[in-house]
């Protein structure tokens, strides 16, 4: 039973990330695979968001909190290296916190509204993450840039990435839900 839950977490994470990667690839081509580019968010946020959603679905609150802290620490280590500073910590706490909050709100939304058809539900995550990404990104800029307010082009940038990444994760998760029985039957080892 434990191995079946692990398979489900892996599959849901994979398809959620794949949805985000496909949307990113459609809009930005192969630049989404370059870690030093902003477009890499489609891979990183797609993976992190889908992983957190699968933890919400299959794990307890304790594992969810442990997963969030572990992802935050791992993100700091991978993307900042030895140059960890308070500005990077603020960035990651708000960026990942916004992603986690969006996924949590979306999870509760789809559990309460079961009649909404697959693939339409992903529009809710696009909307939720788009708004929360604007708020969290603006707070990061406000704190890290000597209290300057964000420009409209920066807000548009945050909204665009939030909407597209949220839509991609939602599509991937809906694909998993729709094909869950078939996908799980492929990986059952007897």
Question: How is this structure best described in words?
Answer:
This protein is mainly α and 190 residues long. Helix content is 79%, strand content 0%. Helix 1 runs antiparallel to helix 2, helix 4 packs antiparallel against helix 5 and helix 5 packs antiparallel against helix 6. The mean pLDDT is 89.
How widely separated are the two ends? 13 Å
Helix content: over 70%
Tally of DSSP helical segments: 7
Question: What structural class do you assign from the helix and strand content?
Answer: mainly alpha
Shape: globular
Number of strands: 0
Number of domains: 1
Sketch the topology as an H/E string, one letter per element: HHHHHHH
Q: Which residues sit in consecutive blocks of at least 5 with pLDDT less than 50?
A: none
Strand content: under 5%
Q: What do the pLDDT scores average to? A: 89
Main sheet record: none
Q: Give me the Rg, rounded.
A: 17 Å
Structure characteristics:
about 190 residues; about 80% helix; globular; mainly alpha
Sequence-ordered SSE layout with sheet pairings:
Layout: H1 2-28, H2 41-58, H3 61-80, H4 86-112, H5 122-144, H6 152-178, H7 180-187
Helix pairs in contact: 1-2, 1-6, 1-7, 2-3, 2-4, 2-6, 3-4, 4-5, 5-6
Summarize the structure.
This protein is mainly alpha-helical and 190 residues long. Helices cover 79% and strands 0% of the residues.
């Amino acid at each position: 039973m434990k191995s079946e839950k692990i398979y489900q977490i892996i599959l849901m994470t994979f398809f959620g990330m794949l949805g985000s990667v496909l949307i990113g690839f459609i809009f930005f081509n192969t630049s989404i695979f370059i870690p030093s580019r902003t477009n890499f968010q489609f891979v990183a946020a797609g993976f992190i968001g889908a992983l957190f959603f699968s933890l919400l679905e299959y794990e307890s609150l304790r594992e969810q909190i442990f997963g969030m802290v572990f992802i935050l620490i791992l993100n700091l280590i991978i993307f900042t290296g030895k140059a960890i500073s308070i500005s990077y910590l603020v960035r990651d706490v708000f960026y990942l916190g916004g992603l986690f909050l969006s996924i949590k709100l979306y999870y509760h939304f789809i559990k309460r509204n079961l009649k909404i058809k697959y693939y339409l539900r992903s529009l809710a995550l696009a909307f939720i993450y788009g708004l929360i990404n604007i708020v969290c990104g603006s707070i990061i800029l406000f704190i890290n840039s000597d209290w300057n307010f964000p420009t409209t082009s920066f807000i548009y940038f945050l909204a665009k990435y939030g909407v597209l990444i949220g839509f991609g994760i939602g599509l991937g998760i809906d694909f998993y839900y729709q094909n869950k029985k078939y996908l799980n039957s492929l990986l059952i080892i007897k």
